[in-house]
Write a structure and sequence with these properties.
This protein is of the alpha+beta class. It is built from 14 helices and 23 strands.
């Protein structure tokens, strides 16, 4: 077990490089199953979740070579022979369920246990299964396992009751080798879905409507291996943007897609933070006096639920009343208890959090209850008086590449120690 010890009060300076998006890389790695060929993922973030999903592919028979120095992963799925994966691996990470679509598309059957992941709320797989059924697959649920089989997948029109990211990705991957045309309506529009579609198209798929809520997939006979570099991580970028705001600092962030972070930029601009964009570089100025705001999380292009926790840390230090309403996950306020240990004044009313900003947080012993909650606690610790000790940081390691090194490079006094 490890923990972070952070001494607050530092002014940040310098620049930080954003890694590729975890939420883009995971489905792309899953999609390599479809081609039965060799693919190379460039500039890959070496994260715990990435190692988990590559272990899943290895357990099925794939050959994987990870080059940590060059941040490249070479994946050869030609040797996959198994149609069932270890339940222990799947329970480690919900994203493992993304292999279901590629496996049934290529092999016609697959069996796995229900997925695990951060305990931030109910994330049912019913929309995934609805899509598989619409394409002609048979679905069986027995004793905590999901078994899907088909003799042939046939294109269909599928309407998602909710624009689920995972369901959109899984259905899209299962449809690329199906016979005929598939239309996914009310599809999720997140940039990571567009990146997956671009990856599939470069492999030889025929997907149109990228970036909209209606995706059209015309099935093809086979796909080819390629080299590909995923998009930058908009959530990591947003986290460092808030780091500048909460410490009243001016820093440079490299690896920005302005369009992908537009919802976060809009809210931070409303608060009074300054932005200067130049290509994929951002100069962010958090030295102004900030104003309280209200936020409501929504599917993209709305404000991302993955940035809600971090924004709460910032608003806890802004004088006045702010309200955050969480519409995506019903259990994503677990970080509130930990922020209150640091002196934050937050009250929960159903799916809304009312934040009364205070002048200064205090260092304390706190626990990362999930990935983004851990990021929120790091941000709060940057502003707080004294030292903060953050436990259970394995959650943070699931989504941020060497975050302590990146923070140290811009002036944060942070150490990772055994506990």
């Amino acid at each position: 077990m490890e923990k972070f010890i952070i001494k607050g009060g530092s002014t940040l300076r310098g620049e930080v490089n954003i890694s590729a998006a975890k939420n883009a890389v995971l489905p792309i790695i899953a999609a390599t199953i479809l081609c039965g060929d060799k693919c190379i993922i460039k500039n890959c973030p070496m994260l715990l979740d990435v190692y988990v999903i590559t272990d899943v592919l290895k357990s099925l028979g794939a050959k994987i070579n990870i080059n940590k120095i060059n941040r490249e992963i070479a994946i050869d799925t030609s040797g996959i022979i198994d149609s069932e994966v270890s339940s222990d691996l799947v329970r480690k990470m919900r994203g493992s369920f993304l292999i279901m679509g590629p496996m049934i598309s290529r092999f016609g059957k697959f069996k796995t246990s229900f997925p695990g992941g951060c305990n931030i709320g109910t994330r049912p797989i019913d929309l995934h299964l609805k899509g598989f059924k619409a394409l002609g697959a048979e679905v069986k649920l027995n004793h905590g396992y999901v078994e899907v089989s088909t003799t042939k997948l046939i294109g269909s029109k599928i309407y998602l009751d909710f624009p689920s990211v995972g369901a959109t990705e899984n259905i899209m991957m299962s449809a690329v080798l199906a016979e005929g045309e598939t239309i996914i309506e009310n599809a999720a529009e997140e940039p990571e879905i567009g990146d997956l579609a671009e990856f599939l198209n470069q492999m030889g798929a025929k997907i149109t409507g990228i970036g909209t809520d209606t995706l059209k997939i015309v099935g093809v006979k086979n796909l080819n291996g390629i080299s590909y570099e995923p998009i930058y991580d908009r959530i990591e970028a947003g986290t460092f943007m808030i780091a500048a705001g909460i410490t009243k600092s001016k820093i440079k962030i490299n690896g920005i897609n302005k369009e992908h972070i537009r919802p976060v930029v809009a809210k931070l601009t409303e608060m009074g933070i300054g932005f200067e964009f130049k290509g994929q570089e951002l100069l962010i100025d958090g030295r102004n006096d900030l104003k309280p705001i209200d936020i409501k999380t929504m599917p993209y292009p709305g404000f991302p639920t993955d940035m809600q926790s971090q924004m709460m840390s910032l608003l806890s230090c802004v004088c006045g009343t702010s309200v955050i309403t969480e519409t995506i996950f019903e259990n994503r306020f677990m970080h509130v208890i930990e922020l209150k240990r640091m002196g934050a004044n937050i009250k929960i009313d159903g799916r809304s959090a009312v934040i009364e900003g205070i002048n200064k947080l205090n260092g304390a012993e706190v626990k990362a209850t999930d990935l983004r909650a851990g990021a929120a606690l790091i941000l709060a610790a940057l502003e707080a008086d004294g030292e903060t000790e953050i436990y259970d940081i394995h959650h943070i390691d699931r989504g941020y590449v060497e975050i302590e090194n990146k923070l140290q490079d811009i002036g944060v006094k942070i150490q990772r120690v055994k506990c």
